[in-house]
Design goal:
With 310 residues, the protein is α+β, with helices and mostly antiparallel strands. Helix content is 35%, strand content 21%. The strands form two sheets. Strands 1, 5, 6, 7, 8, 9, 10, 11 and 12 form a nine-stranded mixed sheet that branches. The protein has a three-stranded antiparallel sheet with strand order 2-4-3, with no helix packed on it. Strand 5 and strand 6 form a beta hairpin.
Length: 310
């Protein structure tokens, strides 16, 4: 079956969530012209609304709930997408990954995608996260004014700007906190206790602690920190998180093991994006690639008027 025939296939339309099965799905030629907008006068009549695409992902999440959820746990994540400079002229070199790449920003709630934003790799991992989170929160609160929203992410998002925004807008958070000498000193007693337990039992030992913590310069206030003082056969393995959630809501051990570590499931969502839905460079320019590659499932789901063709 050809691509043109697949556009009108009712089964494919049904599986993609299309309501009007008499209307065809977007075809490869339409998507290609959208990706090339601005590069050629030939395609000046084809355009798209980036704002409408952003709204679409939030709308799909809202429509999937018959009633208001009691809590939404949103998980920002950044993972590199590697591309050769010969292929992509707009990819940037990233010293951490030692390669030319993009650094997409994904935000998930459960297995549902809320944001997919392609970004250059030569910037902070949390760049643009406040803008994306504020947009999503506003969309959810417009529908569910009282819903509780919690952000859960690794230390790449542990930034004053994002935490302060959350605190000012009734959004809770649990972020990884990068290890440093001050933090290691704070949990010195707990780490000693874990080492003794390991020497006694011969098994991995964990001791949890919580404390108030504030950086010397970058943070505007003191915040609740939680630590896992762990001792393994290979030695010390401490981990830290910072959170707005109180001890009455989440004790230290449960906060780390049951809530924070649950973000590991998001790795599967990232693998889906990289291997199934956003695994290619559409063009050698960032604008077209952002349109085509980080708007997941477009070939099957891009069928609503809000997508903005004209």
């Amino acid at each position: 079956m050809t691509t043109s025939q697949l556009r009108s296939d009712p089964l494919l339309g049904l599986l993609s969530g299309k309501r009007d099965l008499d209307e065809p799905l977007a075809g490869k030629s339409t998507l290609n012209r959208l990706e090339l907008v601005g590069r050629s006068e030939r395609y000046h009549k084809i355009g798209y609304s980036a704002e409408a695409i952003d709204c679409l992902l939030g709308d799909l999440y809202i429509e999937s709930h018959a009633t208001s959820p009691t809590e939404i746990v949103a998980r920002p994540r950044r993972d590199p997408t590697f591309h050769s400079t010969a292929i992509s002229r707009s990819a940037s070199f990233n010293g951490y990954y030692d390669n030319y790449c993009y650094l997409p920003l994904y935000i998930f709630a459960g297995d549902q995608l809320l944001c997919a934003r392609l970004r250059p790799a030569n910037q902070d991992a949390a760049a643009g996260s406040v803008e994306e989170v504020s947009r999503i929160v506003a969309q959810f609160r417009a529908r569910w004014p009282e819903v509780r929203i919690v952000l859960r992410a690794d230390s790449g998002f542990c930034r004053e700007e994002l935490m302060a925004w959350c605190e000012a807008n009734r959004v809770d958070y649990v972020f990884g906190l990068a290890r440093n000498k001050r933090l290691s000193k704070i949990i010195g007693a707990e780490m000693h206790q874990a080492r003794v337990l390991h020497q006694t039992t011969g098994k991995a030992a964990r001791v949890f602690a919580e404390f108030d913590y504030q950086t010397r310069k970058s943070w505007s206030r003191s915040r609740r920190g939680v630590a896992k003082a762990e001792y393994l056969d290979k030695g010390e393995n401490p981990r830290f998180v910072v959170t707005s959630l109180t001890a009455a809501e989440w004790a230290a051990q449960d906060l780390y093991e049951k809530f924070y570590c649950a973000r590991g499931e998001m790795e599967n969502r990232i693998k889906e994006q990289m291997c199934l839905f956003a695994d290619r460079l559409s063009t050698d320019e960032m604008k077209g690639t952002n349109c085509g590659s980080t708007s997941p499932r477009w070939p099957t789901r891009w069928s609503r008027p809000c997508a903005g063709s004209h």
